[in-house]
């Protein structure tokens, strides 16, 4: 099955570079390009891509608002958003994740990481790079709860083991790493993660990680 990709970046040279990398893959097809968020919305409606490779800083409409419009409530299209970031300059990455992005990737990531990230997101998973996720959440901890707030009632729907799994997801651990940490099978971890997402009404691991921080379950700079 071919993965249909829309490239969104206000720099034509970068779009050309991404296109060359992606079109060399047999299972990926670049179906269109856009130079800002408004164009991205139009192209998503017209082209129905599977994955939108989304820059954050763009004229007219930035990548955060475009992500919200593309993946927000009431949108039933297939498009998933993979955000491109320069990390040190983009203070809006956490906002993009809250808006519905399925993950993020550094603009200077190797070509093989770009290709793999698109495949992961297209498959319905989250591109959650553990080290970058932790650094991002710590970097923007001033905008997140301190951990002293009242824990939301929704957490009471989770079992003790599911809460444990959620904390580990928030720390950026993969299913295999969580399985090793809890001495259970990877299949069991996948089941727990699925229950957490369903009970909390979350779409993927990225939203679960942000939720854990926003709810105060996990504190920026700490493991719990």
From TrEMBL:
One of its GO terms (molecular function) is DNA binding. Residues 4-122 form the Response regulatory domain. Pfam families: GerE (PF00196), Response_reg (PF00072). Keywords: DNA-binding, Phosphoprotein, Transcription, Transcription regulation. InterPro entries: CheY-like_superfamily (IPR011006), NreC/VraR/RcsB-like_REC (IPR058245), Sig_transdc_resp-reg_C-effctor (IPR016032), Sig_transdc_resp-reg_receiver (IPR001789), Tscrpt_reg_LuxR_C (IPR000792), WalR-like (IPR039420). One of its GO terms (biological process) is regulation of DNA-templated transcription. The modification 4-aspartylphosphate is found at residue 55. Gene3D superfamilies: 3.40.50.2300. It comes from the Bacteria. Residues 151-216 form the HTH luxR-type domain. The keyword Transferase does not apply. This is DNA-binding response regulator. It comes from Streptomyces gardneri.
């Amino acid at each position: 099955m071919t993965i249909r990709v829309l490239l969104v970046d206000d720099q034509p040279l970068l779009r050309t570079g991404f296109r060359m990398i992606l079109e060399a893959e047999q299972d990926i097809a670049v179906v269109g390009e856009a130079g800002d968020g408004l164009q991205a919305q139009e192209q998503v409606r017209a082209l129905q891509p599977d994955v939108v490779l989304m820059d954050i800083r763009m004229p007219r409409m930035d990548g955060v608002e475009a992500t919200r419009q593309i993946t927000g409530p009431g949108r039933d299209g297939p498009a998933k958003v993979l955000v491109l970031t320069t990390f040190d300059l983009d203070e809006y990455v956490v906002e993009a994740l809250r808006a519905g992005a399925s993950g993020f990737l550094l603009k200077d990531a190797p070509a093989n990481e770009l290709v793999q990230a698109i495949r992961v997101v297209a498959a319905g998973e989250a591109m959650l790079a553990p080290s970058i996720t932790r650094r991002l959440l710590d970097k923007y901890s001033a905008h997140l709860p301190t951990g002293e707030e009242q824990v939301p009632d929704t957490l009471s729907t989770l079992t003790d083991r599911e809460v444990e799994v959620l904390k580990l997801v928030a720390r950026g651990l993969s299913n295999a790493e969580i399985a090793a940490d809890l001495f259970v099978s990877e299949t069991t971890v996948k089941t727990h993660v699925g229950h957490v997402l369903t009970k909390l009404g979350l779409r993927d691991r990225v939203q679960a990680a942000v939720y854990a921080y926003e709810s105060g379950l996990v504190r920026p700079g700490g493991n719990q």
